[in-house]
Each structure stands twice: as C-alpha cells, then as structure tokens.
Amino acid sequence: MLTIEEPQNMSIISGKIPKNNMMEINRDDLWDIDEINIDKEKSIKDKLEEFVSIAKGDLSTHLNEDYVVRVHFSQNDYSATDAMKYYMKQIAELKY
Questions:
Q1: Where does the DUF6870 domain lie (predicted)?
Q2: What whole-number distance in Å separates Cα of residue 47 and Cα of residue 69?
Q3: How far is it, in rounded angstroms, from Cα 95 to Cα 72?
Q4: Which residues, 6 or more positions from 92, have their beta carbon under 8 angstroms from its beta carbon?
Q5: Would you say 61 and 69 are in contact if contact means Cβ atoms under 8 Å apart?
Q6: What is the distance, to the nearest Å, from the Cα of residue 62 to the centroid of all Cα atoms in its chain?
Q7: Looking only at Cα atoms, what is the longest distance across the chain?
C-alpha cells in the first residue's frame, strides 16, 4: 500500500467544501487549471506540494476553459465510480 507523508498546507485539501453559492464566487480569485503545469518526474508528495503552492486558497473551485468548476468527493455519497457504472449501463442498454 502506498503511503505519503502529509505535505505542508495539505490541510486545505481536507475535504471542506466552501459553503458559498457558486453564483457569488469572484472569478478573479480562482486559479485556472490550464495554467497549472506540474513536473511529472517529481514524487507524488512533491507534485502535491507544488500543486498546493500554485493553486493557493480554495482547491475545490477553479476555472476550466472560462467555466467555474467545483469538485468534491465524499465517502458516503454517490462516487465517480458509481456514476461511471451507471453511465456504462445506460450506454449498454441503449446500444444492445
């Protein structure tokens, strides 16, 4: 099993989703995902630290091609895997 020491400032990735309304977000305060370039040769720990230092602030909300995007994951909610399974099932039912 892979274990990673917690990099500095990782507490801001702790899963605390901002409560502010998406319509109230100041776009100028958001980081643009297209401007993030992480050295792929670095260790995972170093990549995470670099990302946190570049993105600063709210890591769950960013710009992507001029759209405001908020991402979060939950251990008790509908997962990305669940969504993919549902999507594939729907595609299979439509095609076959």
A1: 21-87
A2: 21
A3: 31
A4: none
A5: yes
A6: 9
A7: 50
* 2 contacts: CB under 8 Å, gap ≥ 6: 44
In this prediction the pTM is: 0.52
Backbone angles phi, psi at 49, to 5 degrees: -60, -40
DSSP string of 22-76, one letter each residue? GGG--GGGSPBGGG----TTS-HHHHHHHHHHHH-S-TTEEEETTEEEE----SS
What lies within 8 Å, CB to CB, of 71 at 6+ separation is 60, 61
> Domain extents for the chain?
23-95
